[in-house]
Amino acid sequence: MVGESREDIAVIVEGVVKIYESRGERVVALREVGLAVARGEVLAIMGPSGSGKTTLLNIIAGIDRPNAGRVVVDGFEVSGAGEEELRRFRLERVGYVFQQHNLIPTLTALENILLPMSMAGRPSRSRGLELLKKVGLEGKEGRYPEELSGGEQQRLAVAVALANDPPIIVADEPTGELDIATGERIVRILLEEAHGRGKTVVLTTHDPRVARMADRVAVLEDGRLRGIYSPQRIAGGAGLGEVEAEKAVEAALRKMMEEARLKLREAEERFRRGEIGIDELINIYTRSRALEEAVREELSRLGVTA
After folding, report:
1. Cα separation of 205 and 58, whole Å?
2. 268-295 in b/e burial notation, b at 16+ Cβ within 10 A?
3. What's residue 1's pLDDT?
4. Strand order in the sheet with 76-77
5. Would you state the torsion angle of the CA atoms of residues 163, 63, 44, 135, taken in this order, to the nearest 10 degrees?
6. What is the pLDDT of residue 287?
7. Which residues pair with 26 in a beta bridge?
8. How does residue 230 score in pLDDT terms, banded at 50, 70 and 90?
9. What homologous superfamily is domain 9-234 in, according to CATH?
10. Can you tell me the mean pLDDT for 218-235?
């Protein structure tokens, strides 16, 4: 980001604070988070569960509002906009790939893509078919979401997010429940949009293998930005020098590794109680072990012994 002019910055987040009320208690989801994302860049936001990743993504996308701070996306000040302005912003300038697909079950694959186009006043069947081809779903325009596999549903969700050709794409855990090969395919589609077409992509992930494909990785923990790193270096978050940032990134990665082990132990207990079958246990075991190994590799790549 060094040397980028203001015009080259697509997303600006300055001192963002988000506080929720939960069961009568105040929960601080984000604590003075600040970052910037360049046009044509892919930024991955990584961190343990509950670190504030989805909250930050929702604020960038104009779905949620911060209690304090400033957010500017594609030159539009999201944090101070009215409801109608935000509606148009979400429809025309941001494509959101939701973690749970957010597809309409009573619409076909093509109709799901055409819906946001129609809402923007420019439906195009030819563009819808072009997007289906782009995400590898050519010939499946008449299928309903339930007739598609999990990976196909996620690819359809990407096509829906691209429907109105938005300059900004945000994706919440786009590979969370997918196998490695399918997950990489999803990420490569997003990379092509950024590096091939100049769009800006901000995605959240638990998986270092996905984060490694991004241009930079922002690490959140307990609502704070702990550091931003690339294959070349780790830069400090707010108030952190590089050495402190390295330690903070290491701590966050280790916490993610422990989360993977905990999920596996919980799955084993559920299997013993008869709450899940052997197929689900094997699936959780495979994903947990793969994630743990990916974290080990990332720690090693950063010069840390796991």
Report:
1. 14
2. eeebeeeebeeeebeebeebbeebbebb
3. 52
4. 25-38, 9-22, 68-73, 76-77
5. -20
6. 75
7. 21
8. confident
9. P-loop containing nucleotide triphosphate hydrolases (3.40.50.300)
10. 76
CA distances, 236 to each of 34, 41, 180, 217, 230 (Å): 11, 19, 30, 12, 12
- pLDDT recorded at residue 243: 56
Convert the pLDDT of each residue in 92-115 to its tens digit: 999 999 887 789 999 999 999 999
46 near 211, Cβ under 8 Å? yes
Helix (H) or strand (E) holding 15: strand 9-22
Sort strands 9-22 and 168-172 into parallel, antiparallel or unpaired: unpaired
The region that residue 15 occupies, defined by phi over 0 for left and psi between -120 and 50 for alpha, beta otherwise, is left
Entry field: residues in the chain: 306
Which residue has tokens 């209690």? 67
Q: Which of 12, 56, 45, 28 is nearest to 249 (CA)?
A: 45
Question: Would you say 120 and 164 are in contact if contact means Cβ atoms under 8 Å apart?
Answer: yes
Cα separation, 57 vs 204, in Å, equals 8
- Assess whether pLDDT exceeds 60 at residue 35: yes
Interacting residues of 23 by C-beta distance below 8 A, sequence separation 6+:
none
Contacts of 167 (CB under 8 A, 6+ apart): 10, 39, 74, 93, 198, 199, 200
Distance CA 306, CA 297 (A): 8
Q: Is the pLDDT of residue 3 over 60?
A: no
Higher-confidence position of 228 and 111: 111
Render pLDDT for 136-151 as a digit per residue (tens, 0 to 9).
999 999 999 999 988 8
CB 93 within 8 A of CB 168: yes
**Domain coordinates of the chain in residue numbers?**
9-234, 241-302
What pLDDT, on a 0 to 100 scale, did the predictor assign at position 235? 47
Closest CA to 51 of 205, 263, 243, 247: 205
